[in-house]
UniProtKB/TrEMBL annotation:
This is 2-methylisocitrate lyase-like PEP mutase family enzyme. It holds the Pfam family PEP_mutase. The keyword Protease does not apply. SUPFAM superfamilies: Phosphoenolpyruvate/pyruvate domain. The keyword Lyase applies. One of its GO terms (molecular function) is oxo-acid-lyase activity. Signal peptide: none annotated. InterPro entries: ICL/PEPM, Pyrv/PenolPyrv_kinase-like_dom, Pyrv_kinase-like_dom_sf. Keywords: Lyase.
Length: 293
């Protein structure tokens, strides 16, 4: 069931910062930190699950189970990437129904051609704006609860310019989107203009490590009219750097001794994170006195 807290935060103008999650370890870590929402990144999920680029290769079947597991394994509401809805209008309806049934709170749909490409990468092409508006209308009709939010993303800025991207954002809002996501604006001035011309809750995509959009503070984004900032790459980029350091040390030295302090999590803390104490308590409660005989 969708969590009403995101809709409530938007109504109260309570800015939302959402870290990117991509597997259940990242989800469990982020879930315990008090964020108002978690962002289930398509790039990171496809990379961790399939080991391939986020380039339209993953299917609805690949993704719905993963996104549902994130939602069901977290107490924090989950915003989930759903690419283009995995096809036409009927596919969009099926995707919305599946993600909502899985416990996701907000679904992100984009207006790229199939196969889609990851945002902030070159070569993205968009479908006609009216075709995307129909997808948003179908998505809004397909949901069972108004607390399940529709995020409409346009990738038109890079290929067609900011004017077209803003016009699409306005159209998608009228079609029923709860949140508008203009992908890849290239300056603070562009972001400020987006906030001034689109009357809707806005989402900013802060891509660490070399994205096209400047990474701004929550305070500045809120002053521009934004409501949500996602950090989709933060988790998997941090994990990649940490693993490369640890594995390189092992390869060079033949053991893990000598890694710097903080390079590894405590094994006991990891057991707690994954829920082993509950398993051990269950075993103690149900142990039979004659088990050792």
């Amino acid at each position: 069931m969708a969590n009403p807290s995101i809709r409530a935060a938007l109504a109260a103008k309570d800015f939302i910062v959402a870290p990117g999650i991509f597997d259940m370890i990242s989800a469990r870590i982020a879930d315990r930190m008090g964020f108002k929402a978690l962002y289930a990144t398509g790039y990171g999920t496809v990379a961790s699950h399939l080991g391939v680029p986020d380039a339209g290769i993953a299917t609805y079947s690949d993704m719905v189970g993963r996104m549902s597991r994130f939602a069901q394994g977290s107490t924090t509401p989950v915003i989930a990437d759903a690419d283009t809805g995995y096809g036409g209008l009927l596919n969009v309806r099926h995707t919305v129904m599946g993600y909502e049934a899985g416990g996701v709170t907000a679904i992100q749909l984009e207006d790229q051609e199939v196969p889609k490409k990851c945002g902030h990468t070159p070569g993205r092409r968009v479908i006609p704006a009216r075709d995307m508006a129909l997808k948003i209308e179908v998505a809004a009709e397909a949901r069972k609860s108004d607390d399940f939010l529709i995020i409409a993303r346009t990738d038109a800025r890079t290929a067609l310019g900011l004017d077209e991207a803003i016009a699409r954002g306005q159209l998608y809002r009228k079609a029923g989107a709860d949140i508008v996501f203009i992908e890849s604006p290239e300056s603070e001035e562009e972001m400020k203009r987006i906030g001034g011309e689109i009357d809707a809750p806005l989402l900013a995509n802060n891509v660490d490590g070399g994205g096209r959009t400047p990474i701004l503070s929550a305070e500045k984004l809120a002053s521009f009219g934004y409501s949500i900032a996602i950090y989709p790459a933060l988790g998997f980029l941090a994990m990649t750097a940490a693993l490369e350091t640890a594995y390189a040390h092992l390869r060079a030295h033949g053991d893990s001794a000598g890694l710097p302090d903080g390079a590894l999590a405590d094994f006991g803390a990891m057991n707690t994170l994954m829920g082993f104490p509950e398993v051990w308590e269950f075993d103690r409660r149900w142990a039979r006195p004659d088990a050792a005989e």
